[in-house]
What does this fold into?
Amino acid sequence: MRELIAKYREKGFKLTPQRLAILNFLDGNTSHPTADDIYREIKKNYPAVSFATVYNTLQALRDRGKVAEITIDFQKKHYDPDIRPHHHIICTECNKIADVFQDYSEALRLPYNIKGEFQSTGNHVNFYGICKKCRNLSRYVSKRENKKRRTKLCA
Amino acid sequence: MRELIAKYREKGFKLTPQRLAILNFLDGNTSHPTADDIYREIKKNYPAVSFATVYNTLQALRDRGKVAEITIDFQKKHYDPDIRPHHHIICTECNKIADVFQDYSEALRLPYNIKGEFQSTGNHVNFYGICKKCRNLSRYVSKRENKKRRTKLCA
DNA sequence: TTACAAATTTAGAATTATTCTAATTTAGAT
DNA sequence: ATCTAAATTAGAATAATTCTAAATTTGTAA
It folds into this structure.
């Protein structure tokens, strides 16, 4: 992200204040925000900012390989400015996502029948689990109740 | 799926004609359909069928662990009636999904820092690649052009 | 059988996520 | 300072999914 700001003059990437704000928000951010999370954050300083700007910027970054889309959440996409190859784990109670830095590439070999059909270009492991906070909370609140809750109890 | 039909009397699961049609469509289906795919299929025989019915049924099946949701596609959910643990590969050109029956569980150990934070309940590997058909087509059609295409050239 | 309660169906509205549009503004090059 | 390509905006459009409330149907049990 930082290095992108440094090299923002790269062909066809204009650095607007809104973009700078998005880049700054993403830089070093390990919260795996959704487009909406980003929109709401930028809106604090740029109340007129449009959703289109957020999606535009994310698309520009994505096209340049500067941000990764994560499909671990069944509801919506999350974005990760850390583009080093890694995997993720999501808490199925509160949807908190954490990075899993572990190289499984040696083990993730495709079976032969697939190799004949597909030429693999990458992989990503989704882990599912319960985070510490939710594990504690679930002693007092049923899972069903917890899931319906709009406001997350943890995180 | 079949065994579900046999045991459909299980507490609180009513077998309506629409449901039976959905169950029959899903049974042994390896195409990983979306809710919309299912809706369109059932509509052929039940023109009045509602989207809500499809989602209702899928939710009922999901709650009973009879169907798996797949998050490999960035656009929408796919459903898999094969509930044996397995993984998937998606063609990034035409979105065709194939099953990957390979047990990676031995290798997919979480790093210690994550183990302290999360209690893992499962994992799923998403593989990305290009299928044979698209590999051949891409000789003639640029990737960009191909992506914009509404009608898939392959599949 | 018939009656009934609970579950399911339906059309359609509502929500949510994402993308597109067209007019206006702005960044960065000259 | 000027200019053009790119980015911004509000708002509409699209797409995926969920919800609602009224009508219907299933499976059970008298």
Remarks:
- The helical segments of chain A are 2-6, 17-26, 35-45, 51-63, 112-117, 132-137, 143-148.
- Chain A touches chain B through 39 residues (CB under 8 Å).
